[in-house]
């Protein structure tokens, strides 16, 4: 199924992983979140569980091995083009994850991958959905910077 202008919503999974008071994030290389930092994840493939999908996606995107845990957030991401047609539609399940090993490096569809501190979040273009999730569920926000971008 096409990811751009799909016939139906795409199921995706992402993971929130902390290590040494930092969160694992990727800078996205492709639309709809191109050049924004977000928690890593991607589409669930046929036959995969959410946990299997997120563990595979994180390894492909960052080189970091994680163990997926329980869901912590579910949301729709719908992006329309100028004519109002649905360009992207994802149903995203964010899971909590446990760090198992590896050092982040950009792979797959990531421009960069890194462990980010609270201060880093204030200096980077963070996806509104990731910023809202980190703030609301984990109280993980930039202490010296107000994140004021609206959540889509």
Compact summary:
The protein has 3 helices and 7 strands; from the N terminus they run ββββαβββαα.
Describe the overall structure.
The chain is an alpha+beta fold and 152 residues long. The chain has one domain: Nucleoside Triphosphate Pyrophosphohydrolase (Alpha-Beta Complex), CATH 3.90.79.10. Helix content is 20%, strand content 40%. The protein contains 3 helices and 7 strands. It has helices at 50-62, 118-123, 128-138; strands spanning 10-19, 22-28, 37-38, 41-43, 65-80, 86-101, 110-116. Strands 1, 2, 3, 4, 5, 6 and 7 form a 7-stranded mixed sheet that branches. A hairpin with a 5-residue loop joins strand 5 (65-80) and strand 6. The chain is globular, with a radius of gyration of 15 Å. The relative contact order is 0.25. The model is unreliable at 144-152 (pLDDT under 50).
